[in-house]
Amino acid sequence: MRIAMIGTGYVGLVSGACFADFGHQVTCVDKDAVKIAALCRGEIPIFEPGLDALVATNVKASRLDFTTDLTGPVAEADAVFIAVGTPSRRGDGHADLSYVYAAAREIAAAIRGFTVVITKSTVPVGTGDEVERLIFEANPSADAVVASNPEFLREGAAIRDFKFPDRIVIGTSDERGRKVLGDIYRPLSLNQAPLMFTVRRTAELIKYAANAFLATKITFINEIADLSEKVGADIQEVARGIGLDNRIGTKFLHAGPGYGGSCFPKDTRALVKIAEDHDAQLRVVESVVAVNDNRKRAMARKVAHALGDNLRNKTIAVLGLAFKPDTDDMREAPSIPLITGLCDMGAKVRAFDPASMKEARRELPDIDYCDDAYSCADGADALVIVTEWVQFRALDLPRLKRIMKQPIVVDLRNIYRAEDMQDLGFVYESIGRNKSKNV
């Protein structure tokens, strides 16, 4: 199959490289000439474990290439994937579909012969209808089918997720479209990947519903963590106790500072707006959005409380800036409102992250950045663990205690045992634990 992938962001680049690794001929297209030039030099614009090697292998095998001009790749393609950004629209929370629609118009002008156009971007229900209308408005003679194929990739594990998916959702009622997409994903058949064919609007809603449900699990366990602190329970044991029920499951039951990233915040907000537009109520999702926003701001107050509610001229060391480990993604990261709140309360903040400091400097230009965890902690009044990078799971704790001005650790990911920290002489605060003695 010949595939044109429009957009070289997270979804487009990972998907394009994986399709090429299946043996398809893939051209990734992006209007950003600087990004395309970097990709042609072998420079990967995002941090994703294994992606650099995957891209290099398939470029060397002449199965993957990059360009700023979609005309040739689309004209030759059996399938064209739209994988451009759909950020929250400024001011109202709706998904901004301007990039999707612009891509559809350009694709329409370049189509030659039968082509399946697939929206891989996360888009509101009914977007495929509008993409179809735009294509045939721009090119009434186009022989095209528009389908939906939402992605379910986790940053930090995207390549494995693509090659060993829980499911592949394909939204189309056209038999020709089903065949093309079935052929594209056929290399996964030996892995027994479940292909789920449905109508286009259902496929579009599946993506939003999945992300909203996962965001709800995170928010639920965070609220139970707050209750655990009040009543003297241990949230990690609570999470294990409910997660062992296979109706609930263990995933996304890790208490922390709130969800962030490129998907959950914008998709939950967009889903609420979709419901409003169709006169439906999504009170649970509305509450999830509000509770999560409030939680991120509350983390700064938690740090302040550990220091006697006075942060004036105190130095706070922050470990972890990206919204999760194994990525450099700073979009909606909990570290941003946390650090902003600390600075507003008069603290001096220094930070370290193994991958995201370049991105973080754009979001948080007024703090100090350090070369490693220990230079970050040196002389600090408190250390805050925000992202659970593996590098932070085995810190030299006696060394930390020696170099810190005050041995105060606020662990927002519960990666250390409270008894170990207390035995070493730390004042230790975590999430959903240690507020009162268990009975």
What are the SSEs and their pairings?
Blueprint: E1 2-6, H1 10-22, E2 25-29, H2 33-40, H3 51-60, E3 64-67, H4 71-76, E4 79-82, H5 98-110, E5 115-119, H6 127-138, E6 144-148, H7 158-163, E7 168-171, H8 175-184, E8 195-198, H9 200-231, H10 235-243, H11 264-277, H12 283-306, E9 315-319, H13 335-344, E10 348-352, H14 357-363, E11 368-369, H15 373-377, E12 382-385, H16 397-403, E13 408-411, H17 418-423, E14 427-429
Parallel strand pairs: 1-2, 1-4, 2-3, 4-5, 5-6, 7-8, 9-10, 9-12, 10-11, 12-13, 13-14
In short:
By secondary structure, the protein is α/β, with parallel strands linked by helices. Helices cover 44% and strands 13% of the residues.
Q: Choose one word for the global shape.
A: elongated
Tally of DSSP β-strands: 14
Largest sheet, spatial ordering of strands: 3-2-1-4-5-6
Indicate the low-confidence ranges by residue numbers.
Answer: none
Helix content: 40-55%
Number of separate helices: 17
Beta-strand percentage range: 5-15%
Q: What class would the helix/strand composition place it in?
A: alpha/beta
Please state the average pLDDT score: 95
